[in-house]
Design a protein that fits this description.
2 copies of one chain form a homodimer.
Chain A lengths: L2 E11 L2 H9 L11 E7 L2 E7 L7 H8 L4 E8 L15 E5 L2 E11 L17 H17 L6 H16 L2 E8 L3 E6 L4 E6 L4 E3 L6 E3 L9 E6 L10 E2 L4 E6 L2 E7 L4 H5 L1
Antiparallel strand pairs in A: 1-4, 1-12, 2-3, 2-4, 5-6, 6-7, 7-8, 8-14, 9-12, 9-13, 10-11, 14-15
Helix pairs in contact in A: 1-2, 3-4
């Protein structure tokens, strides 16, 4: 399985601290060593860094860790290959353009026999189930809404329906962003934290590094961080229940929808 | 005006030497300091590095210069903004996916009032004439050939026709690649060199750096390099006549077509 990391903020924020811990998971503190990638939105533009080698030994990861790129939406991924060989074309996150915006997608899980009909509007370049799911999502969104972007509420509703369809095929934790919203689906394993004033010290799980967020933030900053497992050992990360789809915007939760019956329904 | 750099080879080759000279043009030996970018194909995968700051002062450019990424097709660009503000979304090269392959595009020139009808299949994210031209080219190719890639000869013929249409709007030097072929249009100013055995020493124009290509190549290597102006001062760069479209493949010229009447026709 892979490792996901996402960030959604109300002001452009660098991800150097979180990435320092995350980077170690690609072959140092964890076994996910089949490549890694990270995408930063800056306004409507996107920067994406991909490397098919382990992140703990990657000079590109070293640059990302040391070079503060300020972004309101970031998606990163460390790969443990399931479908598709180790190679750049199978390295997450993936990028496409829809409605004049870049879309970024990363997946943790495994979709069995997911082979939807693709009409040619978005075709996978690599051989992963993940890129296939991403292409199908964008194809279906364009088919539903045409050539202009819908309201965010309608987009989230449509994404919920598509997630339900795909989740039938297996484990489907994902992060998706168009630079404005960050969508996260917890299929089995995902956690989040929202950092806001009063800011405190945070200490990484994967490396002995501490940051004093109060020294690098303003009182109005709000930063949501989503990760496969908590990145720090002294903060309260919230587990995202399996079968929940989340919409983050400006560093806060805008809406959540169930993709599996919750505990209440199971009792009913 | 901007600076273009392209490379097309028969074996994966690093571009560190050429990029060392090219990088200096982004604010050091030349005035093009409104951002830069470079895209590498590795198999079907693509790595793209973009930075809206001058390449001569960019830590990302420093990484690219020092980190040998081996690629058969590379496109780089240093920007002097004409249309579209300085910003990541307006930084070349641009990337889209068509027919399950990534396509990379960079432009040097200025298209006046080029506002073609876009059907929504490829929409510019930024505000440059360049990205608009790229989106329109891909839209027209898909409209002509449907959802499967044509033979390369038919692709080149179609690209020639589209280039003729766009070149009516102004200066349109461009580099375009799908990872297999590299297409280059000389509208006003472009030069190329093909390096092959026997390899010799080369010395950069923009920095006092020399490389002995015979020490870093095998006798079968063949590398075509295309640049706005020659990168070395002791090799025979060939000027590409204004109004010529070039198709490079495996480090050699596959075909050229005129997009303006040549000198002979002018006399006729």
């Amino acid at each position: 399985m892979c490792q996901l990391l996402g960030m959604n903020c109300n002001v452009p924020t660098d991800i150097c601290f979180s990435f320092t811990g995350f980077q170690a998971r690609g072959g140092a503190t964890d076994v996910h060593s089949d490549g890694w990638g990270i995408a930063f939105f800056e306004g409507k533009g996107t920067r994406i860094f991909l490397d098919p080698q382990p992140s703990c030994a990657s000079p590109i990861a070293e640059l990302v860790r040391a070079y503060p790129i300020r972004s309101k939406n970031v998606i990163a991924h460390i790969r443990k290959a399931t479908q598709g060989s180790i190679g750049l074309e199978n390295t997450h996150p993936f990028m496409r353009e829809l409605w004049g915006r870049y879309w970024i997608f990363a997946h943790n899980g495994n979709l069995i026999d997911f082979a939807p009909k693709l009409d040619g509007s978005f075709i996978p370049v690599g051989l992963t189930d993940s890129e296939r799911a991403f292409c199908w999502i964008l194809q279906q969104l364009r088919a539903q809404f045409g050539s202009a972007a819908p309201e965010s509420e309608n987009l989230f509703t449509a994404l919920h329906r598509l997630t339900l369809d795909i989740a039938d095929y297996g484990e489907f934790n994902f992060l998706l962003s168009n630079g404005g919203s960050l969508f996260a689906h917890a299929s089995t394993n995902l956690n989040y934290i929202i950092r806001q004033a009063p800011f405190a010290h945070a200490h990484l799980n994967d490396q002995d590094v501490t940051v004093d967020f109060s020294a690098v933030t303003t009182p109005n900053d709000r930063v949501a961080v989503i990760a496969t497992s908590p990145l720090t050992d002294n903060e309260n990360w919230e587990p995202m229940p399996p079968g929940t789809l989340w919409w983050f915007e400006e560093g806060k939760i805008e809406q959540t929808l169930r993709t599996k019956p919750g505990p209440e329904k199971k009792r009913g």
